[in-house]
Amino acid sequence: MASKIIAALEQKALITRVPDPGDARARRLHLTTAGRQALRASIAAARQADAEIFANTADTQRLIADLRTIAEHRTAGRHVRVNS
């Protein structure tokens, strides 16, 4: 599976494979300029998605409160602290 992903990244010119000077069987992977740009864009998109998904909204606060209530009921009688 990993080899197919690596081959696809190489075909799209996002990485290059170069021989490992210390091990003739191994190859080192290097990001190309396009690969670095794609990585930066992917990280930015992931951060944006996280910000949207985990935004501090009334729904999020209600979910957190519900989860705390569930955790408190499940740990009743045990010495477990639920962080606020």
Q: Could you explain how this protein is built, in words?
A:
- It is built from three helices and two strands; from the N terminus they run H-E-E-H-H.
- The protein is an alpha+beta fold and 84 residues long.
- It has a domain of 37 residues.
- Strand 1 and strand 2 form a beta hairpin.
- It is elongated and about 60 Å long.
- It starts with a helix and ends in a 10-residue tail after the last helix.
- The model has no long low-confidence stretch (mean pLDDT 87).
In short:
With 84 residues, this protein is α+β, with helices and mostly antiparallel strands. The chain is built from three helices and two strands, in the order αββαα. A two-stranded antiparallel sheet has the order 1-2.
Entry keywords:
84 residues; alpha+beta
Topology (elements, then pairings):
Blueprint: H1 2-11, E1 15-20, E2 23-31, H2 33-53, H3 58-74
Antiparallel strand pairs: 1-2
| Helix-and-strand structural type | alpha+beta
Helix fraction, binned, reads: 55-70%
Largest sheet: 2 strands, antiparallel
Number of helices, where a helix is a run of at least 4 consecutive DSSP H or I residues:
3
Unreliable spans: none
The coarse silhouette is elongated
How would you state the average pLDDT, rounded? 87
The total beta strand count reads: 2
Span of the ends, CA to CA:
41 Å
Strand order of the largest sheet: 1-2
Our estimate of the beta-strand percent is 15-25%
Order of helices and strands: HEEHH
Give Rg in angstroms. 23 Å
